[in-house]
Design a protein that fits this description.
By secondary structure, the chain is of the alpha/beta class. It has helices at 16-25, 53-64, 88-120, 133-136, 143-163, and strands at residues 6-10, 30-36, 44-45, 71-74, 124-129, 168-173. The model has no long low-confidence stretch (mean pLDDT 96).
């Protein structure tokens, strides 16, 4: 990276880990923007349950960060029960919503980030917040959550292997 101010985008920044990341990164050498579903408290609004929300967030962040993002932290996610005895349609709807929010939106942002870094010919960093559930599974009500986080880890490893030679580095952090 350069000695210019580092531009960082953090998803899921309204509370918990994302809020802490945003607050920790904020400083004189960093311009950090956060995302939340509602956009409250100065965060950019993007509801990852909606198709196209990740791309809209990326465009908004680029506009606010003078056309440059150096680091993306994909933290947004949901953790909701999905009991095996739910009705078929309800179970599948919960599965799909979790995968959309926890994985697909992050994958879209990773893709946009890699393309952005390549176009600029600049180093970039991708940090995906997964979960220990990626490696050990989770409760019987959370198959969908564990699957989304396990896939996130595999996606991150693939990005890391594929683009490290271009100084595009990808990391998965698994709290828990």
């Amino acid at each position: 990276m350069t000695d210019k101010k580092t531009h960082i985008l953090v998803t899921g920044a309204s509370r918990g880990i994302g809020k802490s990341i945003l607050e920790t990164l904020y400083g004189p050498s960093v311009s950090a923007l956060g995302q939340s579903t509602t956009g409250q408290n100065g965060l950019i609004a993007a509801n990852f349950a909606d198709t196209g929300a990740a791309g809209g967030l990326w465009d908004s962040a680029l506009e606010k960060l003078d056309g440059r993002i150096d680091v993306i932290v994909n933290n947004a996610g949901i953790f909701e029960n999905n009991p095996i005895d739910s009705g078929d349609a309800d179970w599948l709807e919960s599965w799909n919503a979790t995968v959309q929010i926890n994985l697909t939106a992050a994958a879209e942002l990773c893709r946009l980030a890699v393309k952005h870094f390549q176009k600029r010919g600049a180093a970039g960093r991708i940090v995906n917040i997964a979960s220990r559930a990626a490696y050990r599974g989770d409760s019987p009500e959370h198959w969908h959550y564990a699957a989304s986080k396990g896939t996130m880890v595999a996606m991150t490893k693939t990005i890391a292997r594929g683009y490290a030679a271009q100084e595009i580095l990808a990391f998965a952090i698994c709290p828990g």
